[in-house]
Design a protein that fits this description.
Blueprint lengths: L30 E2 L5 E3 L4 H22 L2 H8 L14 H17 L3 H17 L8 H5 L22 H19 L3 H16 L14 H12 L2 H12 L30 H18 L2 H17 L31 H18 L2 H15 L17 E2 L20 H12 L5 E4 L2 E4 L5 E7 L2 E9 L6 E8 L3 E8 L14 E3 L10 E4 L2 E3 L3 E2 L2 E8 L3 E6 L4 E6 L9 E6 L2 E6 L10 E2 L6 E6 L6 E13 L5 E12 L11 E2 L2 E2 L18 E4 L28 E2 L7 E22 L12 E8 L2 E4 L14 E18 L7 E9 L1
Parallel strand pairs: 5-9
Antiparallel strand pairs: 1-4, 2-6, 3-23, 4-5, 6-7, 7-8, 8-15, 9-14, 10-16, 11-12, 11-15, 13-14, 16-17, 17-18, 17-24, 18-22, 18-23, 19-21, 20-21, 21-22, 25-27, 26-31, 27-30, 27-31, 28-29, 28-30
Length: 813
């Protein structure tokens, strides 16, 4: 195990006061302990933080260089020649890595990184236009060649351009860099841009909100660090015009621009945009006291936790639009759950705690960071998930063209978001309000806070989340009366989430309840909003011992979650577990965990950088020689979900079958299933094996299944063929077409035909019944039997559209 390192927490850099700049008196009622007062020395988080410092930040900068993201600034600033490369919102990726690098510099000063940032910031400053506008694509493209998403002129397509989104991340990076180094080089760029926006946007001026929210968060950080109220006012203005058709043509629910923000009650649309919107509303409300904002995000939060929150803490169920689904729409294999959305959810829930002081928000935060977020980054720090599904078959390329973590993406918002978020977790551990000191997260290390007017040092010793014991040393500068409020996690009170969306199958025994000791003496739990309140006169040497019931527990979903009926998930403390094929005789989807199955925890320091696994004896469904399914006893091993896919391709499942009928088996052998598939063209994210994997589609737009499409070919002639192991006599085929009308550009074909191979020639089948192109059914075609070694299906795609298949069956004579 790597040596633990000490770091400074930076999650709320912009909430801290900066010497020489105005202090803001009104803000969140519950204040996070600032970054320069927290040090982490933890068995779980320190290795992750060290990898982020030594690997991820440099890796992200390297990829930004290789892909032209950094050169775009140099080109826009006249420092080098060349054309724009990439996507116009790539500017934001550079800003996010700078923000993460600034946090790292504050953790551990490093001359090399400091100098690298100086050189990079000089390029950014050069790219800024004289009036403050900054968007590299617009300096490098002539108006007639400007990418459509950007609009031909400034602000002409704010629904898609990301002009304001980019600079929102610039502001966050600038504040972080200034507070980490004391240098104003990037802060001056940000201020110049923000001043320009304050002159440009407002009543009677530009009255369009950003299509992708983020600038609201950045503007509030600029306000906090400069004291310039105009930045706060602009953030509020951009929130207030959202959903108001009298100011602009509405963007719709996808961008949360369908209703005024104060009238919204449901989480809809793009999940990352939504999370950033709700975070920005919380920031502005904390300072302005805008009660309508708080009421709105309270309603929306209830909507999420009661029906739109995956067990991982991930949000955004749908691939289409990277969006929230309907209530209880919580799929597993097809779940999108973008890593950036997990980050947005964590940021939002931390802010909700700072508004309300209720531990239930920290419960969601904790669930998210240990599961739905952390799965997005590999242990090596240089491989990433964009989506984070709860089930995988090892074939479906859910991760933007891959079934495994990838080194980078065309749109790489997730890898660069990770590097800034990991160190920010330190700023979420403690908080204060007057004479109350809150312990939110259990992370080894120390924090120093102002409580009731004096300094209190709090030290944690723990092996959480692998062990449930935590020692808290409380050391006030002088003996004083105040309260230490220790969060008792919802999972330790038999409540997985703060709603009835999930519940535990079992209950805790009396000796498995959370317990507290103060100076060796048990003390009753006096609870207030999820916190155990320890009100007393504290002095140096006082010790609080927390004991939390870490045991493997079965979780059931609300019965309205159709995908998880008769399924069970397993978690231990805040850590959610999954089954991987590599540990379970090559399969995971066939495992049956009945209610009688119990699990024993075993810590494995030699596995996946040190994890606690769960072992039990369950059942596995197998197909016998007669083709029928049968159950057999099988020992099973579960690993933490956040470390899955570190040992090669294979099956994975969080929600395991609770009854045999829910176990997934490979289909019985068929002629099609044993054939070799070749094709004229296949989209990089699709699968040849999709056409003969035996999976039965629910409809032609079924995105839960692998598919074969000819995307991005449109209106062309294409083909797919089966080559049989030995000649076979065929008399019929059944084709299930892929058609994502309303979501994408694939349609059933205009026409199709079938040929068989005779010698070296292809001949059309005869005596055909029909070549059907109906949606949502198998199109069965019979013909005069042929004996052949290969069969070819030839299609003519509709003009302007592509097409594809979900399944193709063949029937012998």
């Amino acid at each position: 195990m790597r040596k633990a390192i000490e770091i400074s927490g930076l999650a709320w850099l912009a909430l801290t006061l900066t010497p020489g700049l105005p202090a803001q008196n009104k803000d969140y009622p519950f204040q996070p302990v600032p970054f320069n007062a927290v040090q982490i020395k933890d068995v779980f988080w320190s290795p992750r933080l060290e990898t982020n410092r030594t690997v991820t930040v440099w890796y992200d900068f390297q990829k930004c260089e290789e892909t032209g993201r950094i050169d775009n600034f140099a080109k826009a600033g006249g420092l080098m020649k060349g054309e724009f490369r990439g996507i116009p919102f790539d500017d934001s990726d550079v800003y996010k890595v700078i923000e993460g690098a600034a946090y790292i510099l504050a953790m551990q000063p490093e001359a090399k990184l400091d100098q690298y940032l100086d050189a990079l910031i000089a390029k950014i400053a050069a790219a800024q236009e004289p009036d403050g506008y900054l968007y590299t694509a617009r300096r490098l493209f002539p108006p007639e060649k400007m990418p459509k998403m950007s609009g031909s002129t400034r602000w002409s397509n704010l629904s898609h351009s990301h002009e304001l989104y980019n600079v929102g991340h610039l502001y966050e990076a600038a504040v972080a860099h200034y507070q980490a180094t004391g240098k104003k080089s990037l802060l001056n760029v940000a201020i110049k841009n923000a001043d320009f926006l304050c002159e440009t946007f407002g009543p009677g001026k530009v009255q369009y909100p950003p299509g992708h929210q983020e600038i609201e968060i950045g503007l509030v950080k600029l306000y906090r660090v400069t004291g310039q109220e105009k930045y706060l006012n602009l953030a509020k203005y951009l929130l207030d015009i959202r959903g108001r058709s009298e100011t602009h043509k509405l963007y719709g629910a996808y961008a949360q621009d369908h209703l005024p923000v104060t009238e919204q009650s449901e989480a809809v649309g793009h999940a990352v945009r939504a999370g950033y919107l709700y975070s920005g509303m919380a920031d502005v409300a904390a300072i302005t006291g805008e009660a309508a904002y708080i009421k709105a995000i309270d309603r929306i939060w209830e909507d999420v936790v009661t029906g739109k929150l995956h067990l991982t803490g991930g949000i955004g169920a749908r691939h289409g639009g990277e969006a929230f689904g309907d209530k209880y729409e919580l799929p597993n294999k097809s779940a999108y759950l973008e890593t950036c959305a997990a980050i947005a959810n964590a940021l939002w829930n931390h802010r909700m705690f700072l508004l309300h002081g209720d531990a239930r928000y920290v419960d969601v935060l904790e669930r998210t960071i240990y599961n739905g977020f952390l799965s997005g980054i590999s242990l090596s720090g240089d491989r990433f998930f964009y989506p984070n599904p709860l089930e995988a078959d090892g074939k479906y390329k859910f991760n933007h063209g891959s079934a495994e973590r990838q080194a980078w993406f065309g749109c790489s918002c997730c890898p660069v978001n990770v590097v800034r978020f990991i160190p920010s977790i330190a700023g979420m551990i403690y908080a204060t309000r007057g004479d109350q000191l809150y312990v939110n997260l259990f992370v080894g290390g120390a924090g120093q806070a102002k409580v009731g007017g004096q300094t209190v040092r709090l030290t944690q010793e723990t092996r959480y989340p692998w062990e449930g014991s935590v020692k808290l040393s409380v050391e006030p500068a002088q003996a004083a009366e105040f309260s230490v409020r220790v969060r008792i996690p919802g999972w330790a009170q038999s409540r997985p989430v703060p709603s009835d969306l999930y519940r535990y199958l079992d209950s805790l025994e009396p000796d498995e309840q959370p317990r507290l000791k103060v100076n060796g003496q048990f003390t009753p739990l006096i609870m207030d909003k999820g916190f155990a309140v320890l009100q007393r006169r504290w002095k140096k040497g006082d010790l609080v011992e927390v004991s939390l019931p870490l045991k493997a527990r079965k979780v059931l979903a609300h019965p309205s979650v159709k995908d998880n009926l008769d399924r069970v998930a397993i978690e231990r403390g805040p850590v959610l577990y999954c089954a991987e094929g590599v540990d379970n005789q090559g399969q995971a989807l066939n495992i049956v965990v009945g209610d009688e199955v119990s699990f024993a925890a075993e810590h494995r320091p030699d596995l996946l950088n040190g994890v606690t696994v769960l072992k039990g004896s369950a059942k596995a469904a197998q197909r016998g020689e007669d083709g029928k399914a049968a159950l057999k006893d099988q020992p099973i091993t579960l690993v933490p979900y956040h470390v899955w896919n570190h040992r090669g391709l294979g099956e994975m499942a969080v929600w395991l079958a609770r009854v045999p009928e829910k176990a997934k088996l490979a289909p019985p052998p068929t002629l099609a299933g044993q054939s070799k598939v070749t094709v004229s063209h296949v989209w990089k994210a699709d699968h040849l094996a999709a056409v003969n994997d035996g999976e039965e589609p629910r409809n032609s737009g079924d995105h839960d299944l692998p598919r074969l499409t000819w995307w991005d070919h449109k209106g062309t002639a294409e083909w797919v063929q089966y080559e049989f192991k030995q000649p076979a006599t065929i008399s019929a085929v059944e084709v299930y077409w892929f058609d994502d009308t309303g979501r994408g550009g694939c349609r059933v074909p205009a026409s199709w035909s079938l040929s068989y191979k005779e010698g070296d020639d292809w001949k059309p089948v005869t005596g055909v019944s029909e070549f059907g192109v109906k949606k949502d059914v198998f199109n069965r075609t019979t013909f005069t039997p042929v004996t052949t070694s290969a069969l070819r299906l030839e299609v003519k795609l509709q003009p302007g559209f592509s097409g594809g298949l979900l399944e193709w069956k063949v029937t012998g004579k």
